[in-house]
Structure formats: structure tokens, C-alpha cells
TrEMBL record:
<comment type="function">
    <text>Heme-dependent dioxygenase that catalyzes the oxidative cleavage of the L-tryptophan (L-Trp) pyrrole ring and converts L-tryptophan to N-formyl-L-kynurenine. Catalyzes the oxidative cleavage of the indole moiety.</text>
</comment>
<dbReference type="InterPro" id="IPR004981">
    <property type="entry name" value="Trp_2_3_dOase"/>
</dbReference>
<keyword id="KW-0479">Metal-binding</keyword>
<comment type="pathway">
    <text>Pigment biosynthesis; ommochrome biosynthesis.</text>
</comment>
<feature type="region of interest" description="Disordered">
    <location>
        <begin position="1"/>
        <end position="22"/>
    </location>
</feature>
<keyword id="KW-0223">Dioxygenase</keyword>
<keyword id="KW-0349">Heme</keyword>
<feature type="compositionally biased region" description="Polar residues">
    <location>
        <begin position="95"/>
        <end position="104"/>
    </location>
</feature>
<dbReference type="GO" id="GO:0019441">
    <property type="term" value="P:L-tryptophan catabolic process to kynurenine"/>
</dbReference>
<dbReference type="GO" id="GO:0004833">
    <property type="term" value="F:L-tryptophan 2,3-dioxygenase activity"/>
</dbReference>
<dbReference type="Pfam" id="PF03301">
    <property type="entry name" value="Trp_dioxygenase"/>
</dbReference>
<dbReference type="GO" id="GO:0020037">
    <property type="term" value="F:heme binding"/>
</dbReference>
<dbReference type="GO" id="GO:0019442">
    <property type="term" value="P:L-tryptophan catabolic process to acetyl-CoA"/>
</dbReference>
<keyword id="KW-0823">Tryptophan catabolism</keyword>
<feature type="region of interest" description="Disordered">
    <location>
        <begin position="87"/>
        <end position="106"/>
    </location>
</feature>
<dbReference type="GO" id="GO:0046872">
    <property type="term" value="F:metal ion binding"/>
</dbReference>
<dbReference type="GO" id="GO:0006727">
    <property type="term" value="P:ommochrome biosynthetic process"/>
</dbReference>
């Protein structure tokens, strides 16, 4: 196969190879703009005093991260567009604020996701997952630098800090991290971009557009089978749960040893209380307002249904999508954790960061569930019931779930609750 960089000129062997570089078309270095990339490592230690060997690694590591962030955002924008097909109006926004960016109006009604695109969504989400795995691991390379080596050039960096990474913030916002869920110091992260109107514009846009979480919720709320006039999954599921809890209570009461009986009874009580929070919309919403749950009520129901019936052909890919979304959340948390550990190793737990935060203490606080966008998917396991208690599908429902059709059809479901930007 001809190399695309050589403009279709067939490969040549031996001495004739020399002629290839003479031919029209682009050379490797030109195509990849290596003149720019490979000259972008400016060691401040060399400029100010004596070159510190490890500063090179420090710069390359950060640059590699930023390049991968760029690729993740690129994939994420197209995944969001696939979840939110618009009549040719949704151009994935770019970082540079160029004119192809059109912000998406608030509360716009979602279009139906064409199910033939779920494989493409899955492919891109999996790619993001693999990149994140790499990013989690990459921390270990930088850890080969010792704290003493870092100390030798750290002062030159001030006030530069990863806190000012625009792409990291865009990534968080595009996934669905919300301002009010950030820890206090982080709520004012936009301050650091004050002198860069393009960055501010990109951030504003990323906060206003429907996030991936929002789009996923809209899609989940339309899961076929939720409609109470049709299969009524939620009603059937509640009856199964009531039966299960009654059986467990009966079993607990039969225990002859008081200690064991009390243990089992309190276990059943806490399960009852947990289930109550998903069967009462107001309890659910109270948890949402405290940031302990993120999904709309209808989206949560869709996620439970897909999880329980994941073996049905039409739910197989949606279930894999939910798994990938959890992987993304979980890998970002792992990255935060590895980064915090590295920071403690490099500067301890008492020094301020170059960006002005409390350093280790601030970063440790970002490890909380508040930053998990798909928190509800992690917690779904609380609401699983044994296979034999899963409500059997009706013949009509079985048929509906046995074939993929053109989309989560709105007629499948009247329960078309929308996830607005305000309520995610
Ligand atoms: C020696 C290595 C590193 C040290 C000591 C370090 C230190 C810190 C500190 C102290 C903060 C808190 C903000 C501040 O006050 O400065 C921070 C934030 C951050 N750093 Fe690093 N960092 C290191 C490497 C990296 C690398 C390789 C990346 C990759 C891009 C990175 C990305 C970030 C990001 C995105 C934040 C913001 C996190 C948030 O606010 O949730 N850091 N870093």
C-alpha cells in the first residue's frame, strides 16, 4: 500500500529510496508539524541558571497529557453529536472558538438517537477509555523524577500549574461536572483564564451546551418499556422488589438466635430504605439536590431497566455504553488519585501549589463522589434483584427488544421526561 504521505507514489527499494524524498507530497515531519512540536520544550532551568535534567521529562509529560486531552475532547464532541443528532446544525465545537461553533440552545428538544449509531458511540467511548488508561499509567513515568530534582526547577514554574489546564476543565464540563458540585476552591477555576477571552468563551460554551451526562439521561429516559400504559417496567419492578424484601424479612424473622435475627432484620430495613429512595420521586429529587444522585428520575429507571434486561439484543449495546461511561468516570478518579499521590511525593502535604491552592489537601478533596458524573450507574448495584425475580417480558416486549430499530422511538414510551440543563 502506498504511504499517504508520499502522495500515492509506490514504495521503492534500495538506492532508489533517495528519490522518494524528492517527490511531490508531504514528508513525515511536515505532515506532523514536528518543527513546532519538537521545538516546544523550553527548559526554564537552562534559561535562568543551570539545566536541570528532569525538567525535560516534566515538560514532555505535560505536553503528552495535553495532546491526549485534545484527542479525548475530539472524540467526546462527536459522541455528544451522535447522541444529539440535529438537522445538520451541530458542529462539534473546537477549542479555538472558531466560527463553526454554534452553542446549543437551552431546553432544545432532543432528537432521537439512531440505534445504528450506538456501535459508533461505543467504539469512540472505548477509545476514550483506552486513552484514559494510558494517562493513568503515565503518572508513573514522571514519578521517576525525585522530589529533590523537582525542587531544583519548581520555583521557575510559578505561577504555572495544571490548575490552568483549559482542556482539563473543558473535559470535565463536557462530561457533565457541574459548578455547584466542585469543591470550593475549584468553583473559581474560571478566574485563571481571565486574561484569555477565547478560553473564557470556550468554557462558557462547554458549560451551556448539553453535557454528555445530560444527553445520556435524555436517551435513558426514553428506554422502551418504561411507559406505564405499556410494559410498565417500573410498576412491575416495584412489585418484585416488594416481594423480595417481604421474603427477606420473613427469612430474618425465622432466625432463632436473637443477634443473628437483629442483624438480618436491620439489613432488610436498610435495603427497604434504599429502595424507597428510588420508588419515591421526591426522595430521589432530594438526593439529587444534595448532589448524592445525578440522574433524573426517568433516566435512573431507564438505567435500571437496561441493566436488568441487558441480555436482550436491543439492550446489549446500551448496556455496554453504560459500562464504558462508568469506566470513564472511574479512570478519571484513578487519574486524580495517582496525581494526588504524586503531588504528595513531590511536595508533601503542607506546601501550597504553584497555582495557589492548598496543594495536596485541595487535590485530595477532589477525589469525592461529587466529581463522578455517572455516579448513579455505580450505585445501580444496590438495586439489582436476583434473576428469577426480574419481571418476565411480555411477548410484545420481547419482540420489541429482540430487534434493533431506527431509534429509541418516542412512541415506544410516553415517559419522555426531558433532562434540561437546569435539572442535571
Ligand atoms: C511533579 C508533578 C506535579 C505536581 C507536583 C503537580 C502539582 C499540582 C498541584 C499542587 C495542583 C493544585 C493546583 C495548584 O495549586 O497548583 C495541581 C493541579 C493540577 N494538575 Fe498537577 N502536578 C504535577 C503533574 C501534573 C501533570 C503531569 C498533569 C497532567 C496534565 C497535571 C495536571 C493537573 C491538573 C489538570 C490540575 C487541576 C486539578 C483540579 O483542579 O482538579 N499535573 N497539580
Amino acid at each position: 500500500m502506498a504511504c499517504p504521505l508520499s502522495d500515492g507514489i509506490p514504495e521503492q527499494h534500495g538506492q532508489e529510496n533517495d528519490q522518494v524524498t524528492e517527490s511531490p507530497g508531504m514528508l513525515y515531519g511536515e505532515y506532523l508539524r514536528l518543527d513546532k512540536i519538537l521545538t516546544a520544550q523550553r527548559l526554564l532551568s537552562a534559561e535562568y541558571s543551570k539545566e536541570v535534567h528532569d525538567e525535560h521529562l516534566f515538560i514532555i509529560t505535560h505536553q503528552a497529557y495535553e495532546l491526549w486531552f485534545k484527542q479525548i475532547i475530539y472524540e467526546l464532541d462527536t459522541v455528544k453529536a451522535l447522541f444529539n443528532p440535529e438537522p445538520s446544525s451541530y458542529d462539534p465545537p473546537s477549542l479555538n472558538g472558531s466560527s463553526n461553533n454554534r452553542s446549543v440552545p437551552k431546553n432544545r428538544l432532543p432528537q432521537v438517537l439512531n440505534e445504528s449509531r450506538t456501535l459508533e458511540i461505543l467504539k469512540r467511548l472505548n477509545r476514550i477509555v483506552l486513552i484514559l488508561k494510558l494517562l493513568v499509567e503515565q503518572v508513573t513515568i514522571l514519578e521517576t523524577m525525585t522530589p529533590l530534582d523537582f525542587m531544583a526547577f519548581r520555583d521557575y514554574l510559578c505561577p504555572a500549574s495544571g490548575f490552568q489546564s483549559l482542556q482539563f476543565r473543558l473535559l470535565e464540563n463536557k462530561l457533565g461536572v457541574k459548578q455547584e458540585h466542585r469543591v470550593k476552591y475549584n468553583q473559581s477555576y474560571t478566574r485563571v483564564f481571565g486574561r484569555d477571552p477565547k478560553a473564557i468563551e470556550a468554557i462558557k460554551r462547554s458549560e451551556e451546551e448539553p453535557s454528555l451526562s445530560c444527553l445520556v439521561q435524555r436517551w435513558l429516559a426514553r428506554t422502551p418499556g418504561l411507559d406505564s400504559h405499556d410494559f410498565d417496567f417500573w410498576g412491575k419492578y416495584k412489585r418484585s422488589v416488594d416481594k423480595l424484601l417481604a421474603e427477606q424479612e420473613q427469612h430474618a424473622r425465622k432466625q432463632t438466635k436473637e443477634q443473628l435475627r437483629n442483624y438480618h432484620l436491620s439489613n432488610v430495613r436498610s435495603r427497604q430504605a434504599a429502595f424507597e429512595t428510588i420508588f419515591s420521586e421526591s426522595l430521589h429529587n432530594a438526593l439529587v439536590s444534595r448532589g448524592e444522585r445525578k440522574f433524573t428520575y426517568a433516566a435512573l429507571q431507564g438505567a435500571v431497566m437496561i441493566t436488568l434486561y441487558r441480555d436482550e439484543p436491543r439492550f446489549s449495546q446500551p448496556h455496554q455504553i453504560l459500562t464504558s461511561l462508568m469506566d470513564i468516570d472511574s479512570l478519571i478518579t484513578k487519574w486524580r488519585y495517582n496525581h494526588v499521590l504524586m503531588v504528595q511525593r513531590m511536595i508533601g502535604s503542607q506546601q501550597l501549589g504553584t497555582g495557589g491552592s492548598s496543594g495536596y489537601q485541595y487535590l485530595k478533596s477532589t477525589l469525592s463522589d461529587r466529581y463522578k458524573v455517572f455516579l448513579d450507574l455505580f450505585n445501580l448495584s444496590t438495586f439489582l434483584i436476583p434473576r428469577q425475580m426480574i419481571p418476565p417480558l411480555t411477548k410484545q416486549m420481547k419482540t420489541k427488544l429482540s430487534i434493533a430499530c431506527n431509534g429509541w422511538n418516542p412512541d415506544d414510551n410516553q415517559n419522555n421526561s426531558d433532562c434540561t440543563l437546569e435539572d442535571t
